[in-house]
Amino acid sequence: MELSKNFEPQAIxxxxxxxxxxKQYFKSVPDSREAYTIVMPPPNxxxxxxxxxxxxxTIQDILIRRARMEGKNTCWIPGTDHAxxxxxxxxxxxxxxxxxxxxxxTREEFLAYAWEWKEKYGGxxxxxxxKLGCSLDWDRTAFTMDKDYYASVVKxxxxxxxxxxxxxxxxxxxxxxxSLTALSDEEVIFKDVxxxxxxxxxxxxxxxxxxTVATTxxxxxxxxxxxxxxxxxxxxxxxxxxxxxVPIINRKIPIIADxxxxxDFGTGALKITPAHDKNDHTIGLKHKLKAIDxxxxxxxxxxxxxxxxxxxxxxxxxEGMDRFALRKKITEDIATLGQLEKIEEYKGQVGxxxxxxxxxxxxxxxxxxxxxxxxxxxxxxxxxxxxxxSIRFHPAKAKNTYNHWLENIKDWCxxxxxxxxxxxxxxxxxxxxxxxxxxxxxxxxxxxxxxxxFAENSVLRQxxxxxxxxxxxxxxxxxxxxxxSNPGNEDVKYYYPTTTLVxxxxxxxxxxxxxxxxxxxxxxVAPFRDVYFTGMVRDKQGRKMSKQLGNSxxxxxxxxxxxxxxxxxxxxxxxxxxxxxxxDESSLEQGRNFNNKLWNALKLLKMWEGRQAxxxxxxxxxxxxxxxxxxxxxxxxxxxxxxADLMLQFRLSxxxxxxxxxxxxxxxxxxxxxxxxxFEQPIDQLIYQTTVDFFSELxxxxxxxxxxxxxxxxxxxxxxxxxxxxxxxxxYNGMEKDLLATGDLLKAAVTSLRDARNxxxxxxxxQIVLHVQAENENTYKTxxxxxxxxxxxxxxxxxxxxxxxxxxIVMGKDKFYIETTSPFDSSAQKENLVKELNHLQxxxxxxxxxxGNQQFLQNAKPDVLMxxxxxxxxxxxxxxxxxxxxxxx
RNA sequence: GGGAGUUUAGCUCAGUUGGUUUAGAGCAUCUGCCUUACAAGCAGAGGGUCACAGGUUCGACUCCUGUAACUCCCA
Length: 889
Known about the structure:
7-stranded mixed β-sheet; RNA-binding; 30 helices
């Protein structure tokens, strides 16, 4: 069959993916082999594939494919996350487009729409992963809202509640006024903003100017309950205990002192608004101050809590005004009163919602929390396992981040005011008593047992809220094997704990830490052994990929254009563990070029295939070519060992680099040239077959990184019944250093002779006579045939002295002389040698100085000393050689 | 404001307990080649006082201190 000029991935990719599926290579069932398990970080159910996923899943696929080829029973679980807030936001937006407002729907109606949406758009991303070649066990695809999964989440909530680790309380939470829900601390993203600092004067009760406060949020002024200063601040000491009047609302509030305030920010006086700021809330509690909330759930002004102040018309006119409009309006009104001293530009930070981008309000609200202090006390291994490397982080520096977070852990707000998700299994009676149980029936039984006033027909109302998405995903490694819903089943016993987790550093707290916690609480072991953190994918200029910037490439488009293998190569070649990768399409081009290189090597072999000669001719001539074979065998061993070692250390990018260079440089540029028969000559059968075997072995090494082309070439090389996909990789050990050194000598000789030819502008076709003055002639005997061939020499002679009228080249401790019929100019040659000589002489001086240093001689280790002495003698030999050569020029 | 990390060739990065011929790779650049698989290629070459300033040491890219810039995390 005629092979195409270049590698054409499209048809080949699909063909092999289908073949692998047909052969069920990705399907795993427990057996006697060692398991290698990865659970995919479940992407949002409505997600589409982007660069981050490509990187993440390529890495997982490489690990899984390598493990499969090492004889492990590999199981890679695909799945999606219901992503309550993100998905609900999308469904709400979709409904709005169709003219439906969420509040007009019942919970059941809304959920019906949500499920419809999920069925239609959910899991597109999983289909897209097939394009990338991901070898996932599709039969095990999981979803965090599957029936069993849902039940497990509820079960865990009840269990933690019964253990006293979950409580309900009115606390300051992060409130998203757009999606109308509480958020955990981790879901709040702090952003730098240009804001303003407003200086407002609060008058004393007698009408005299009292104290000036700097605030970034004048709109909350109507909720002020105190002014706080530092007790050490002498400017204000006389004012402490006095009262001032809040502008507009005319409320009298005290001036108090607290160490929390630092004298050098703003004016040194802080307004205390406990309903709208976390720190103010803390101070409020300490000083027993009331919290007056002046914003409703969507961040609009409400006077509902201001009744005691008998608000006037002005205040009532603010009703329903958005917080940002209100800020402007109140500022104007304070200015009108003459109490606005000045406005300064200020660079501050605001918290925004990770999902909606809305500016977060701190808000007092009744929510469910996990008591993390108590939880950690019960499961201290959650921290220690990472610190003592029972769970290994790659890169290890992520341990610091992990440690810092866990040491300062805060309670986890797990309730969300949403409908899409696992509904909180708590029921309330009319008296407000709480009953936590799986069903209303059980809640009712509890109520009757605990509460004599509760009658058969009394009303029970289930909590309206759902649980934080991460409260379900922290069970992922266990529940994908039904470890919670069906504890102790065969799958969970075999596959759990999983082997490796591959995920982004950005969700180390959200997800990794919590999985570890859940792992210890519910299985007494860590859920995984190694965690590989990928960096963030950025664009060429180092910017984050975002929809707004429009700098995230269309991944499927790239795969169509370059092929899956080139895409995987491009993503991997530039991504050391834990470092951000700067995505540049040119690395995909490099991948595509690599494909072509492989393809052309295949074409060369196919050409040879039809031109084989019986191996009997491998007598005198063939002998020489055996060096190429013996040498490349050693290079394969060497790189095979290196790759195995790098894979163990999760240095995947480097592993790919050494394989790339082995194939491109050693195999294509050197080995194939050495093995190549003369023009239109047949190839020795033995050499041909060995070359096919080498190429196959290379494909085996490369397969985890570039699965499609390697499978194709593996089958193109020979008719075969097996597939590379589940073939066992060769275990490499040991190598012959002498052979490798001789190979290096040959390469160096060829390179320096070619360089000399270049510098003398000898045409490639022009033959030369080569004279070798070698320290060790025998080494050259095994390679002289190849040397002659590669530098286009008509003959090679050994000599003990300089050859007059030739071009002299010094390579290490050996010398070459090129005899040529064309005239040559020795000046360039001379210049080079002088440069080299200068270099060596200063090098020698440095070494002699070192060796003349008594303290060095006393302190240095013997082998270091010996090395220095060898350097010295080597340099002396070389200097002598160059000196002699210069004399002949 | 607190913490962590980074700074090595034009770019992206290696450099594993301080000594391995006065720092390596890929990409990019330059020179010469359509040489019987490959111009998406081949053969060569050039390019770095290892951010800066001190210190420890016989010896520092490597260890310590400080400074600067950038990145991330937390408040």
